[in-house]
Amino acid sequence: MAKPNSGHHPNLRYVLLLFWLVSLALFCSAAPAEAASAIPVVDPDAWWIWPLALFVVCFFLGIIAVPAGVGGGVLFVPIVGGFFPFHLDFVRGAGLLVAMASALAAGPSLLKNGMANLRLAMPLALAASISSIAGAKLGLALPDNIVQTSLGVTILGITVLMVSAKKSEFPHVPQPDSWSAALGIHGIFHDGISGKDISWQVHRTPAGLVLFLVIGFLGGLFGVGAGWANVPGLNLLMGVPLKVAAGTSSMILSMASSSATWYYLDNGAILPIIAVPSVIGMMIGARIGAHLLTILKASVIRNMVIAILLFAGVRTLLKGLGIWT
Amino acid sequence: MESRHKPHPEQLHYATVLHWSTLAGFIVLIATFVVYMFGWLPANIPLQQLPQLWGLSASEFLRVTGMQTGWSWLFMMGKGDSASQLGIAMLSGCSIACILAVMPDYAKSRNFTYLMICTLEVAVLVVSASGFFTAH
């Protein structure tokens, strides 16, 4: 049977090859400036190299983020923070914007096809929104090396979580808890693979609220988004089916990142020259990544992302400790 | 086989508002950034100077450049870098617009619990956007 989108593959290869060559050229030209000093001395006429390099890197991050099942923010912050000359404040601000923009763009279709549930998202997003402001406030107040070191530890923790976390496609929830029953949190979604409508309900809602307070705080503190924690929290703790957990995670992220993004924006920690190329690159890459889902082996991409996170986490940790500056 | 179960009406309403507000935000984000990058508007900080400044912390950056915190950028729309903040602010405000849009739906269905949750969420986002937490 012919693949429905097989006609796009040659074009896609050319696009990927072109971006790969451009990124190589950019890094070759930008690297000497970076190596020379902590604050790079860049030819004033070549300022555009960095935003262009950022666009290219984020394009590739977007491509691998979707098949790997992670949000862009968790890849963006350690990689850009570790290997680009921008201060971590601006990287975290841009990371929040990247995570929020991706979640906003995905939101409408997820809500319309029932893969995200607004009634489930709203109370959890409220908890995460409040704590993400606290996280953002603390993140901008702490010394750089402490934030960098804690970020490195967190990224390595996320890597361990990605390797070890179990998933349950359709968790068994025998009885909804009183909170979720009172809030009317339940639903039915259409599983395209089995062709069946699957009803679901949740339990452990109070514990979920506490967990999302913690997740929101970390998201605001490090600007990493929180899909890596939202999905296991919804799926394993509260018993939400995996696909609905992934979709609802996106809705929670869009609201919680918004409150922290405002704080970063108000404090001058979002520079358009860093944030906008990142968002655009990630969005374009994510669209291609969504197409690649059908032709790439997700487990290979996932292992690659785990390796990248491990490397970026070690780099961030050592940078924070002053060992690899 | 298509599902016969449709999401709640307020969820579909939220999705529609989210679609249009996000689209508007992205259009403004890209348009203002193009204006900024091509120098069609003068910038508060010349692009050539940014490589010497983006390695500073946010607080040092503000001190060195003399830029203001909060909504000051809104009153400098004639500058490319301030104008390009508009798209960022629009995207950050999408959730507020969506929640405000579904609040009448909850009120009509007398779902006061969710009306309260929406009110609290809007309050958190608006207070955060206002710069209150920056000042305190």
Key traits:
heterodimer, A: 325 residues, mainly alpha, two-stranded antiparallel ribbon, 2 strands, disordered N terminus, B: 136 residues, 6 helices, 65% helix, 0% strand, elongated
Describe the structure.
- The complex is a heterodimer of chains A (325) and B (136).
- Helices cover 72% and strands 4% of the residues of chain A.
- Chain A has 325 residues and is mostly helical.
- Chain A has one domain.
- Chain A starts with 8 loop residues before the first helix and ends in a 5-residue tail after the last helix.
- The N terminus of chain A is likely disordered.
- Chain B is mainly alpha-helical.
- Chain B has one domain.
- The model of chain B has no long low-confidence stretch (mean pLDDT 92).
- Classes of the chains: A mainly alpha (325), B mainly alpha (136).
- At the A-B interface, helix 4, helix 5, strand 1, helix 10 and helix 11 of A face helix 1, helix 2, helix 3, helix 4 and helix 5 of B.
Helices and strands of chain B, in order, run as: HHHHHH
Low-confidence spans of chain B? none
Largest interface: A-B, 75 and 70 residues
Low-confidence stretches of chain A: 1-8, 24-40
If you average the pLDDT of chain A, what whole number results? Answer: 84
What's the helix and strand layout?
The complex is a heterodimer of chains A (325) and B (136).
Chain A lengths: L8 H28 L12 H20 L3 H12 L4 H25 L5 H24 L2 H21 L13 H6 L2 E6 L4 E6 L3 H18 L4 H11 L4 H25 L5 H21 L5 H23 L5
Antiparallel strand pairs in A: 1-2
Helix pairs in contact in A: 1-2, 2-3, 2-11, 2-12, 3-4, 3-12, 4-10, 4-11, 5-8, 5-10, 6-12, 8-9, 9-10
Chain B lengths: L8 H29 L20 H8 L14 H13 L1 H15 L3 H19 L1 H4 L1
Helix pairs in contact in B: 1-3, 1-4, 4-5
Brief characterization of the structure:
The complex is a heterodimer of chains A (325) and B (136). With 325 residues, chain A is mostly helical.
